[in-house]
Amino acid sequence: GLNLGLFPLGEGMAQDFARKGSVPWLVAFAFALGFGTTFAEPALIAVAEKAAELRSTSLAEDVRPAETIAEPVPEQGVRFALLLRGTVAVSVGCALVLGVLRIIHGWPLPYLIIAGYLVVMALTPFAPPPMIAVAYDAGGVTTSTITVPLTAALGVGLASSIQGRSPLLDGFGLIALASVMPIIFVLLLGIVSG
User: Fold this and answer.
1) How much of the chain, in percent, has pLDDT values that exceed 90?
2) Considering only CA atoms, which of 84, 87, 73, 90 is closest in space to residue 48?
């Protein structure tokens, strides 16, 4: 299914946009692809629901007595799960935009990855401890069944359609960016939301 459906779709779209020289449409496609595939990612849905459930439980335990709560916690949990999924999806969309620009301009991948993990290390001490674990898991769940095939196809298709770019050297690396960016965004969400 991946070889017959998803890989040709991602490669074909990237090659068509590159042939037409439409960088804004290519960037918009990359963002939409990253956002859409990640928001629909089953592993992310499971992690977001579990994180929301645990967060709701801790909120309920913080408020005493229990009689004062008129069932707002489950609603807050649903909102938190959607916020978390949206944050991770936006971060993967941004990562794919950065990856597409990297392929187009020939930026070295190691510098981007190192910079990303330096930002992760700088943000980690300031984030609430429960969000640190969620953030690191969010980086892992973005590399699952839906996101990886389309992301890899986008990178390989784009690199193979730009003269002077190697599909092997330049086409890969989008998934690495799509792993570090959610960690950064979720840590920031934890810092901002307290």
Assistant:
1) 35
2) 84
Residue 33 and residue 10 in contact, taking contact as beta carbons nearer than 8 Å: yes
Q: Concatenate the DSSP letters of all residues of 31-44 into one string.
A: HHHHHHHHHT-HHH
Long-range contacts of 44-49 (CB under 8 A, 24+ apart): 44/85, 44/88, 44/89, 44/138, 44/141, 44/142, 44/144, 45/85, 46/141, 47/84, 47/134, 47/137, 47/138, 47/141, 48/80, 48/81, 48/82, 48/84, 48/85, 48/88, 49/81
Reported residue count of the chain is 194
End-to-end CA distance of the chain: 43
Question: What is the C-alpha separation between 181 and 178, in angstroms, rounded?
Answer: 6
Joined together, the tokens standing for residue 5 give 């459906």
For the whole prediction, is pTM greater than 0.70?
A: yes
Beta-carbon contacts of residue 124 (< 8 Å; ≥ 6 apart): 132, 187
Name the amino acid, one letter, at 38: T
Contact 168, 125 (CB under 8 A): no
Predicted confidence (pLDDT) per residue in 55-83, tens digit = 766 644 544 444 444 444 467 788 899 99
Question: Quick one: CA dihedral 174, 137, 118, 122, positive or negative?
Answer: positive
